[in-house]
Design brief:
The complex is a heterodimer of chains A (368) and B (353). With 368 residues, chain A is α/β, with parallel strands linked by helices. In chain A, 36% of the residues lie in helices and 11% in strands. Chain A is globular and about 55 Å long. With 353 residues, chain B is an alpha/beta fold. Classes of the chains: A alpha/beta (368), B alpha/beta (353).
């Protein structure tokens, strides 16, 4: 059964015949790294020309595992005027924002300086990415909000970048990638969370990146499908780390948004951590309540790529376990596994749940 | 529980110390162990003093669980009315870096189990421990013991040097399939990689929690590499996995299979269907809240009543008293879990039916 977002003009919050939605995972992309040059010092422009960027994976160009489609994108997402998918605001609006009635779009640029091995270059590229988001995206379309992209492997530099953006309404959140060199609850990353909480910004952890470790605890898989499925396991480790290292206990106002790593696993992880906590409490004295309670209070999940049980209604049961107020709709535009808002949640949802998932939860978490 | 006379598909005998194994080791390893001063091969999977490693009422003066079959019978079999039990020895020989040493001590452990446990209690069966870093040597060990009907499956740690489905491991699956032995994948690691995809965690709690994720990845690997297609008679048992992670994992895996099956064309059926048909899971720990309604839904999400196998995971501390099955389980399903499913999974257990 489909969501029928298009059949309910009377209940739609916007004037449109389509329910206005928040899309919490949109990927703008440069045509090339040179698009960042206006905001990079000559030193870094020269550096990029000579040395490029390297991350903790084999290839100079492209991801560790070949994707399913060129640039992991929808075949129809190449702008007619040139450039790659996600590089043209006008085309993005015509293909996605307008027809899907996106009232709030959160930008998560992925090909930036995050995870770049040279930490100074990483910081410079992240700063340039943030300027680029304002100049090319948020200043041109009021529906869009940017993410503060930070050089997360250098917690202090990352915190400086957040402080520089604090109070700037162009930015809705701080963006990290999930695959870091240590689990994100480790204290080297705490300056990021302290700065984000002080700025009133949620911290989003988007799947992907290269921290140098295989995506399984048993080594490198052979296939892209293993990496894609494995982002859920990486995300579980991220959430466990935030909870068990006491990050939420220390920073009570911190909001964590888990992006593109799945969500249906969250209930089982909470049950598992709760059972362990009963036996292992002495190891984690910072925790004053059950792990699942920290998850319930501090963690949000974006929907795409939405899990597809048979029967579909089981997904509603999984959401119920997580909490309907913690689910944020996302499309992942322009990527190949894009979730169409009209098709992605084919299950029974009452009107309140639909409004929450498609729009109001995002407005609440982002204060937008 | 005792009225069901269950079959316990995962419990752990404790090696009292390396000296106990030396009589079963080849001369070279016995001599090396003494001359080089080998330490106990106890991995960090279960730090001995850790409250999860051994339940308080199952600890002896050294902090160990049962180191002999008489005590195991008193603590782990009698209270549950267990008719048969499968020993999964977790002594760390598979984690040794030298594959020669690993093969030598896996062999010693298997012979120690056969002589000092299986011979002394007819209710006991065991898994074959193998040097999983070298599949040829592992297959040799399976061949060596396959004629002993009391060895009922092959034991692998969920995290090794390579994902378990990788073709380097296929000689292990081939040998197991040849002898109709299920392959039991157990929680634990050889610690070649961090226990999470994002590095080494700071707490044991995360380490143990991450075991469930390791099972998810291992299952992805077995499916994606085509192990189930290549070995159509092979059964895989996931022991001490936590169970409740499985439905959400299969939803995701099956979704991506729909989009990416051209990359793995030998996976001709939806992963959910393959796993329901070919994979079994032991029920301790069973990560559900103490709420029968949640349990009932989760069993629906699993989509099969044939997949679950009774286990205590003795001496690990997951439950109190004899409450090894989650509360609120339907009686007919409890009977399947306790007896019928294990008998279907393990052809060699027919004699205890």
């Amino acid at each position: 059964m489909n969501v029928h977002v298009s059949d309910r003009p009377l209940s739609a919050p916007a004037q449109s015949s389509r329910l206005a939605i928040a899309d919490c995972d949109i990927h703008p992309r440069t045509r090339s790294l040179r698009d960042f040059y206006p905001w990079l010092e000559k030193r870094w422009r020269d550096h990029l020309e000579a040395f490029g960027t390297t991350s903790r994976q084999p290839w100079q160009k492209g991801p560790a595992y070949p994707k399913a489609q060129p640039q992991a994108s929808r075949r129809d997402a190449w702008p007619p005027g040139g450039g790659g998918p996600g590089s043209d605001l006008g085309f993005m609006a015509a293909q996605h924002l307008d027809p899907n009635n996106v009232a709030l779009g959160i930008l998560n640029p992925l090909q930036t300086g995050q995870g770049v091995q040279n930490l100074d270059l990483s910081a410079a590229l992240c700063r340039a990415t943030n300027e680029w988001q304002i100049a090319e995206w948020t200043s041109k379309d009021a529906r869009l909000r940017a993410s503060v992209v930070v050089p997360y492997e250098d917690g202090v530099a990352a915190a400086r970048e957040i402080e520089a953006r604090a109070g700037d309404p162009n930015f809705a959140q701080v963006l990290l990638l999930s695959r870091t060199s240590e689990p994100l609850g480790h204290r080297r990353y705490w300056p990021i969370y302290e700065a984000a909480a002080a700025a009133g910004l949620p911290v989003a952890v988007h799947a992907f990146g290269y921290g140098g470790w295989p995506i399984t605890a048993g080594g490198w898989g052979s296939y892209y499908i293993e990496e894609m499925v494995g982002h859920a396991q990486a995300s579980e480790a991220v959430v466990s780390s935030f909870i068990c290292e006491g990050v939420f206990a220390r920073i009570p106002s911190l909001k964590l948004v888990m992006v593109e790593g799945g969500s249906a696993w969250a209930a089982a992880l909470g049950w598992r951590l709760d059972k362990l906590w009963k036996t292992l409490k002495a190891e984690v004295p910072a925790l004053t309540m059950a792990p699942s309670e920290y998850m319930r209070r501090h963690v949000w999940f974006t929907t795409q790529p939405i899990e597809e049980p048979e029967p579909r209604q089981q997904l509603a049961e999984a959401f119920e376990w997580i909490g309907w107020d913690r689910i944020l709709f996302a499309t992942d535009y322009p990527h190949w596994d894009f979730d169409d808002p009209a098709q992605a949640l084919p299950m029974r949802m009452d009107e309140a749940a639909k409004r929450a998932v498609f729009l109001e939860n995002a407005r609440a978490v982002y204060g937008a | 529980m005792p009225d069901l006379a269950p079959i316990d598909c995962d419990l752990h005998p404790t090696v009292p110390g390396l000296p106990a194994l030396l009589p079963y080791a080849d001369d070279i390893w016995r001599e090396s162990a003494t001359r080089r001063g080998f330490e106990e091969m106890v991995t960090i999977a279960y730090p001995t003093g850790n409250p999860l490693a051994v339940r308080a009422d199952w600890r002896d003066a050294k902090g160990y669980g049962a180191t002999d079959p008489a005590r195991l019978g008193r603590e782990a079999l009698a209270p549950f009315g267990t008719r048969a039990a499968i020993l999964n020895c977790l002594y760390g020989a598979p984690a040794l870096f030298s594959e020669d040493l690993s093969a030598g001590f896996c062999r010693a452990i298997n012979d120690w189990i056969a002589a000092e446990w299986l011979k002394r209690d007819p209710r006991l069966f065991a898994s074959i421990l193998v040097p999983q870093t070298n599949a040829e040597r592992a297959a040799e060990e399976i061949e060596r013991l396959a004629d002993n009907p009391r060895f009922v499956q092959v034991l692998l740690l969920v995290s090794g040097e390579l994902p378990l489905g990788r073709r380097q491991h296929w000689p292990i699956f081939a040998a197991a399939a040849r002898h109709h032995l299920p392959v039991c994948i157990h929680a634990g690691s050889t610690y070649r990689h961090p226990v999470t995809p994002v590095g080494w965690p700071g707490t044991y709690m995360e380490d143990y929690a991450a075991q469930a994720s390791a099972f998810a990845s291992a299952l992805t690997s077995l499916v994606a590499e085509g192990v189930f297609a290549k070995f159509p008679d092979l059964t895989v048992v996931l022991a001490e996995s936590g169970v409740s992670w499985l439905p959400a994992h299969l939803w995701r895996l099956t979704k991506f299979w729909k989009g990416l099956r051209s990359e793995v064309p030998w996976v001709s059926d939806p992963p959910t269907a393959i796993v329901r048909e070919r994979v079994r899971l032991t029920v301790q720990p069973f990560d559900v809240p103490d709420d029968p309604a949640v349990l009932a839904r989760l069993v629906e999400h699993l989509g099969s009543e044939e997949m679950l196998l009774f286990a205590t995971d003795y001496p690990h501390a997951h439950f109190e008293g004899a409450a090894a099955l989650p509360s609120g389980l339907d009686a007919a399903l409890a009977r399947k879990i306790a007896v019928d499913n294990p008998l279907r999974t393990y052809p060699r257990l027919k004699e205890v039916a």
